[in-house]
Amino acid sequence: MQQLTNEIRAIARKLLREKKVEVVIGFERGSMPLRSRPCFIRKEEEVNRLFWDGFCENALAVYLPKRKERAAIVAKGCDSRAVVELIKEKQVQRDRVILIGVPCRGMVDRSRIESSAAPRRILEMREIEDTLILRGTDFEETLKRSEFLHESCKTCTHPNPVLHDVLVSEWLEEKNEDPFADIQTFDALTAEERWDYLNKEVDKCIRCYACRNACPLCYCPECFVDASLPQWIGKSIDSSDTMIFHLMRAYHLAGRCVSCGACERACPVGVDIRKLNRKLVKDVKDLFGYEAGLNLEQTSPLATFRPDDTESFIVNP
Amino acid sequence: MIPGGYGLPPSSKILKKDRLPSFLERLLEERIVFAPVRRGEVILIREIHAPSEVVLEYENAKESPKSIFFPEREPLFRYRTEKGKVEVDIPPGRERSRVVFGIRPCDARGLLLLDKVLGGEYRDPYYFDKRAETLVVSLACDHPNPSCFCLSMGGGPCSPEGSDLLLLDLSDGYLAEAVSERGAALLEDPAFEKSDEESLAVAKKIKRESEVSMKPVAMKENLEEHLERVFDDPVWKDLTETCLGCGICTYLCPTCYCFDLCDEAAGSSGERIRVWDSCQFPLFTQQASGLNPRPTAKERFRQRIMHKFSYLPKSQAMLGCVGCGRCVTECPVNLDIREVVKSLSGGNGG
């Protein structure tokens, strides 16, 4: 980890020194064990704040749209895909962003680590290769990092940055196994069971909109839930309103969601938001052979009109 | 209130753990009982129907218990208009009294702030209807979390403020300290037995160790005045740059109370409801003219800090933060309120 951190710092220092960028968006150590967090570095003397470990879970691309400064961004596979989508959607200019690509071995889910250690409290954590060494007041324990990854990271098929200007560390082997086993299980349920499941999940929602705000592709100047003239949906946690928020958001991300999992990680109450998003990711892949954010050339299926489109879903739903 | 806690008998008694279920059974006969329960991965404070649902070995509930008194969605009245006439139905008050059992002292103390803000000259009948009929039995923290900072906010891991009865875990039982007359009445239940000097001594020790284990937050004296002076300091921009602008910190906070009023109508009838709102949302201050006086996360986050550490101390003589640490642990970008306060206390621009 220290080596990656050093490489990122060196790159950031060079970019700032040569005035290639005005800001480097990366991660720094958080205020607690098992936490790393976004940071903005504008001065060369501050680059040592930059840090890299298995808890750099935020989708930093969320900070790019509307940014006036020329920026460099530390990008995992998913982050780079989000940047690709943002460039295609004209929210980010390719020549105003530098991607510091970091092949990613998956980010660690701190809540899993905490529950495995509970009721003991973790006061310090060190990460060496695939091991996490936890220390509390009266214990030390070693865990296997790969067993505690976030759900979104477990099913990730693009750990390497798909677009980068500088690369940190080495390319990782990409898994080709089908990541959609969970969605197949979900698809196999009856419509009623699926509806019950979604209702149960959505009932936890407190409408804090952390999912939306953490999402790099949710950048609408006015979200439909915030519209007041007309007001499309109710403001409360009435389950029908909450459901509409989640369904509409999922549809709005169809063919755009890069499966970074930022929504689910931000959710404070554990709503299985990715179920809907991934279902649509799979549908888009099955129907159009398209995966969001893999390259700058491919046009987004839902932003395309083709006269020869069979539109079989209309003719033969 | 009995200051300092762990006073002399008969204000405190012992509740052996094996007698807790029978006590809860009797509470359930008379009252609606809310208590910590496990829901999937998290602990929430919810209505229970059997003592077995209660989980008392927990750090803190994911959501604060404020929703029991100040629900996320609260119908204020129903209305119907017909031929120029308006009929209004106000929902009836509580039929059964309630008890909130096993919440943490920070959250109980948070209720005192809500009492002040929602009380006063314009007393909120919806809130006080629930508050008046609800007993608060809290569970002292013998092992505060690293994210907890109640002591620095004027409370403490074993603070009795805001509770009617305070329980402290002595391993085979709880020392139960009556904080109010209503709490003392609960001690009349046969599940409680006399406390002894030894238990009181153990309790005192646990309380002291618990307090000592907490890391203090570096906070400037007269912070409320100081914050007014640094209102325009550029440091706010640096502090808030990573903020995503979601409502986690405000919605999980035991003392944030901002709300919105809306009508949910169909045709000529409908319901006026009160829903939680958050100062972190742009819509909170968006004006009809199109102007937003708090256009970015900087102004919005500053408002949250000013409100809690300057405006409320001035208007209500109480900090707007009880140090529960929820915003610290749940913020998706780890924007730590303790670091913000520390940084602002550092005198930048002051």
Walk me through the structure.
The complex is a heterodimer of chains A (317) and B (350). Chain A is an alpha/beta fold. The radius of gyration of chain A is 20 Å and the shape is globular. Chain A has one domain (2-109, 149-315). In chain A, the strands form 2 sheets. Chain A has a 5-stranded mixed β-sheet. Chain A has a 3-stranded antiparallel β-sheet with strand order 5-6-7, with no helix packed on it. Chain A contains 11 helices and 8 strands. By secondary structure, chain B is an alpha+beta fold. Chain B folds into 2 domains: 12-212, no CATH class; 223-345, no CATH class. Chain B is built from 11 helices and 12 strands. In chain B, a hairpin with a 2-residue loop joins strand 11 (259-266) and strand 12 (269-276). In chain B, helix 6 (223-229) packs antiparallel against helix 9. The longest helix of chain B is centred in the C-terminal third of the chain and has 20 residues, at 297-316. Chain B is globular. Classes of the chains: A alpha/beta (317), B alpha+beta (350). Chain A binds chain B through residues 30-33, 35-40, 58, 62-63, 111, 115, 119, 121, 123, 204, 206-210, 212-214, 226, 228, 231, 234-238, 262, 265-266, 268-270, and chain B through 39-42, 57, 62-63, 72-73, 143, 145-147, 241-242, 244-248, 250-252, 260, 262, 264, 273, 275-276, 278, 281-283, 328-330, 332-336, 338-339.
Helix content of chain A: 25-40%
Q: Kindly report the spatial arrangement of strands forming the biggest sheet of chain B.
A: 3-2-6-7-8-9-1-10
Report the β-strand fraction of chain B as a percent range.
15-25%
Distance between the termini of chain B: 39 Å
Mean pLDDT of chain A: 94
Percent range for helical residues of chain B?
Answer: 25-40%
Task: Output mean pLDDT of chain B.
Answer: 93
Order of helices and strands of chain B: EHEEEEEHHEEEHEHHHHEEHHH
Intertermini distance of chain A: 50 Å
Query: Strand tally of chain B, please?
Result: 12
Structural class of chain A: alpha/beta
- Tell me, what's the shape of chain A? globular
Radius of gyration of chain A: 20 Å
Would you report the number of β strands of chain A? Answer: 8
Tell me the radius of gyration of chain B.
22 Å
One letter per element, helices H and strands E, the order of chain A comes to HEEEHEHEEEHEHHHHHHH
Backbone structural class of chain B: alpha+beta
Number of helical stretches of at least 4 residues of chain A:
11
Overall, the morphology of chain B is globular
Main sheet of chain B, how many strands, which sense, barrel?
8 strands, mixed
